[in-house]
Amino acid sequence: MQKSGWATLRSTAGFESRYLLLHSDDGLVGGAQVLLRRLPLIGTVGYISNGPILDEARTEHGTAVRSICDRLVTMARNELAVLLIQPPDGRDDISDELLRRDFRISAAGVAPAATLRLALDRPEDEIRAGLSKRLRRWTGQWERRGVTVRTATEDDLSTVARLLGETARFQGFAPFPESYLRTMYRTFTARDEVQIRLGEVAGEPVVCEVLTGCAGVVRSRLIGTDRSTRWEHLNVSAAVQWDAIRWARNAGYCWFDFGGIGPGSAERLASGSPVSTDGLPGPDVFKIRFGGHLHTYPQAVEWFGSPVLRAAYDLGRRTERGRRLLGAVRNRLRNAVT
């Protein structure tokens, strides 16, 4: 999310980008890509995903963290109404430092706080053995039932956009325009950083999954499904997910990231006891059945420039009407930063 290609993509969803750069006597040692968007009644909202990034081999650890956090606070106070930051993996120290500087723990939910990750650096049979019993049986049935999965090409993007749109509307999100998907495809395909798997039944597209890869991790970004019931009995979504895992392993990735789970599911998985999926959200149950392990991200943090705006946000979370309004704002941001 700190690569320049993401700024190009987000610009199609109404975001501008800013770059904060941190230098030392040895040159560039860190920075952050900040996505900016003006929202009605709020002002300019900034969002940093998986950043800031620091090269601490070239600078003292504590000094670099404090310096980049100073820069972020200055930018927020001078230019923004709200700043949301999701630090990169392993950088809890950035969250801690910002919490000492007028930031607070974020409950905005723009990005997931936890996910499931599946280790891929092992034999496929071992990965298959970690699937639920029902999924293990399915892996031997899809092909003879006419279910196939292939790589989507640029010619398939209209179909992929349609499937993603069906799922977005079903879940209450505004669907991505096809132009957004085409920009993503053209921006990242040349770098081998995006892959779209397309599941079909007798040649008819039923399910798609958009994946991105970086630093040894493949992440499930978007899943689209034909919402009609005629193919439900074939479990095509699971076929596409299993195929995506196999593709990622064969491509040399070390981890498969299922794209986030809800806080209730994460809490139950963190208990360490045998996990019952009773009562958990359906999408999380689906992911759990593939045998991944809980992975938590550093604490997301948020900053509000106005005490009035901050109080209004907190008050809004306590009422049904306020939660709907905040949900609409969150979805608008999430659709652009997924």
TrEMBL record:
SUPFAM superfamilies according to UniProt: Acyl-CoA N-acyltransferases (Nat) (SSF55729)
Kindly state a single biological-process term from the GO annotations of this entry. cell wall organization
Which keywords does the record carry?
A: Acyltransferase, Cell shape, Cell wall biogenesis/degradation, Peptidoglycan synthesis, Transferase
Q: What are this entry's molecular-function GO terms? A: aminoacyltransferase activity
Residue ranges annotated for the BioF2-like acetyltransferase domain, each copy included: 134-260
InterPro entries assigned: Acyl_CoA_acyltransferase, BioF2-like_GNAT_dom, FEMABX, PG_Glycine_Bridge_Synth
Would you say which domain of life the source belongs to? Bacteria
Entry keyword Endoplasmic reticulum: no
Which family does the record claim for this protein? Belongs to the FemABX family.
Q: What is this protein called?
A: Lipid II:glycine glycyltransferase (Peptidoglycan interpeptide bridge formation enzyme)
Q: Which organism is it from?
A: Pseudonocardia ammonioxydans
Instruction: Read off the lineage from the record.
Output: Bacteria, Bacillati, Actinomycetota, Actinomycetes, Pseudonocardiales
